[in-house]
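Box 3.1. Reading complex inputs
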Amino acid sequence: FDYDVLNGQRVVITAGPTREAIDPVRFISNHSSGKMGYALAEAAADAGAEVTLISGPVNLSAPAHVKRIMVESAQDMLDAALHSVENCDVFIGAAAVADYRPESVSTNKLKKGKEASMDIRLVKNPDIIATIAALPNKPFTIGFAAETNDVLSYAREKRLRKQLDMIIANDVSIAGIGFNSDENQVTLITSTDEISLPQTSKRQLARQLIEQIAPHLPTTR
Ligand code: PMT
């Protein structure tokens, strides 16, 4: 591993799930543990980058030499991302951001009614990475695509639609990789290349990803 490969680069990484409140005690979320994003933050810092990690609620401690900002909802994560992204060279979206949130958040705890069912109307959340990629001063922008089927074709389509420089396709249907596991296996997709990285620990994989990303950066200062 090259300990200088990101020297002087500013990197912003999102990690973990978001929580979308229903009422003061309930939320909608997902199984992201934050392990992949935290491993990337650690690898980027080890490679000499100045790293800001924007994290949803997870049970991990901040890696050494990483500035961590804790957030809850997708809207909070977007605010933190827009705040952190100025002068940043690379943005990596490893977070599993909720695509939808409840339309309204009850101020009081919802009570159980007599009805056998209840509806919660959801509205679309902002797309954080697409917002970053649309900035006039956009950093080199890298997303993940968590898919259960047609992984590569959905990932290619997502990269184009969100105007990402690179997307990391993650098959989350295979046991032992993806959400909440210690290992992962991905395919890295750019406009010209598709590189598949075999299953290994998220820590090891993060280091391989950093080494793959580095040559794409315009100025290795
Ligand atoms: O956290 P772990 O347990 O270690 O698991 C890692 C992981 C499986 C969560 C991670 O490797 C991963 O694949 N993260 C992306 C998960 C996801 O929600 O993917 P997506 O295909 O829904 O989103 C595509 C991209 O858009 C992602 O970079 C995502 O961060 C981003 N996005 C999505 C929705 C939204 N509203 N805003 C976004 O920025």
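In summary: Helices lie at 35-46, 74-84, 128-133, 151-161, 202-213.
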